[in-house]
Amino acid sequence: MKERIVILLLVLWLPNICFSNRFELQGHLKNVPDTYYVTVGYDVVENGKWKRIIHDSILVENGMFSLSGQVDELSTAYIEINKQRLRFYLEPSKMTLHIDIHAPYNMQLTGTTVDEEFQTYISTFHECDSNLTEKFRKAVDWEYTSEYSVDYPGMYSLYTHEKEDKLLAFCKKHPDYKIAPDLLLQALEIDMDSWDSYYDGNKVVKAPKRELFSGITKINKVIRKLPAEITNTNLGKKLLERVSIAKAVSECRKTIIGSMAPVFTAVTSTGDSISIANYRDKKYVLLYFWADKISETPYAKEVISNMTKDIPSRDIVRISISCNIDGDEWRQEVNKYGTEYLHVEQPMSTDLYQLFVKQISSLYPFGTLPTYILIDKKGKIASITEGVAEEK
Domain Thioredoxin: where (predicted)? Predict the structure, then answer.
């Protein structure tokens, strides 16, 4: 009899152990076609590291879709609808998400422990988020119909800066909210961008000067108000880790002409490992940071010539570093050119923090591309020419 009781208890207990971190999400979309597709992504912790799970092309039939998976605890998620990425949250529970595609920022989430927190956030920010998206769309439409090229991600970054202070004020008012660490992460993401110009609805204008990571001090002040039970969660630990990374990168980017150049190691397109530390007392180093095309225009060559005049060509090591492409696309581009440069690939990522951790460009003080940085034989930055145009 006792054995039967033990077996029965195991049968009842094991499913709870196996599925205690399982979530089930039911989505209800209003004003979408009968057949529609969405993308949902969410963050999980695996072996102590954050990983993003992405489900592409989830079928929506008659305005409904379903998704299941596993998360340890409260986690950030997003859904892409009509070219908009909407942030929400997942927990190990059965949840329902309601979105009207005509008013996406008024979405409703039920079935989590943060339902009330999320709706308070939505009621506070839905108008702000909607307005920012509309500004961004106008800027993008203008960029694609204009004869001039505009860095529209930069415009979006600039627009979202007006949201940063609102996020900090919200978290300061609600420090005990479980979603507070994620909202502060949003503020930090905004703080990681710095751009020179934006589209005001009629023309491109100069942006107010804003230093990268200028809001870290304010973010840290709010973090100190968060209770331990909030900072000890996965989202809380993620926030503390990434603020620490941001502070370290911020210090690196204070590098100025005359100071020692941040040291990095990398693997070139030929498979060779290089470190700029190895060139100290031997060679000058010219770093060329480029977007998605290597420029060989007469003006670009003139810029390089002016930066390296009086330096024998044999005394210069030229290193090209991609900033916007990787993989096969990068290899196809660098294979067009000879051995004048050592070509280095930077890993791309949708996670801005991973970019700052892994990318060489995060160590150097510039905000526009392409940019040339000359390092002298002592390992000091000799000159920086930023945002070199295709032509005068």
Answer: 255-392
- What 3-state class would DSSP assign to 140? helix
Cα–chain-centroid distance for residue 72? 23
Name the residue with higher pLDDT: 20 or 267.
Answer: 267
Tokens matching residue 30: 């209003």
Kindly report the backbone phi and psi dihedral angles of residue 2, in degrees, each rounded to the nearest multiple of 5, phi listed first. Answer: -65, -40
The answer, yes or no, to whether residue 65 has pLDDT greater than 90, is yes
- For residues 197 and 218, give the distance between their C-alpha atoms in angstroms, rounded to a whole number: 24
| E strand residue ranges, 62-125 | 64-70, 75-81, 84-90, 94-100, 108-110
Number of residues written out for the chain: 392
- Report which of 165, 182, 192 is spatially closest to residue 240, judged by C-alpha positions: 182
Rounded Cα–Cα distance for residues 276 and 287 (Å): 10
Distance between CA atoms of residues 183 and 195, nearest Å: 22
* CB neighbours of residue 42 within 10 Å: 22
Helices (H), the chain: 2-19, 115-145, 152-173, 180-191, 216-223, 228-231, 234-252, 298-307, 327-334, 352-358
CATH superfamily, region 265-385: Glutaredoxin (3.40.30.10)
Distance from C-alpha of 205 to C-alpha of 72, rounded to nearest angstrom:
46
* Residue 6 pLDDT exceeds 70: no
User: In the chain, which segments carry CATH 3.40.30.10?
Assistant: 265-385
Tens digits of residue pLDDT in 124-167: 988 877 777 776 666 555 444 444 334 444 444 555 667 888 89
Cβ(136)–Cβ(159) below 8 Å: yes
Please name the residues in contact with 14: beta carbons below 8 A apart, sequence gap of 6 or more: none
- Say if CB 176 and CB 227 are below 8 A apart: yes
The whole-model pTM stands at: 0.68
Report d(CA 100, CA 84) in Å as an integer. Answer: 13
- In the numeric block, which tokens belong to residue 4? 């039967």
Each residue of 320-365: pLDDT tens digit? Answer: 988 777 788 888 888 887 778 999 887 765 454 554 555 677 777 6
Helices (H) and strands (E) in the chain, counts: 10, 17
User: Residue 348: which of 328, 324, 314, 372 has the closest Cα?
Assistant: 324
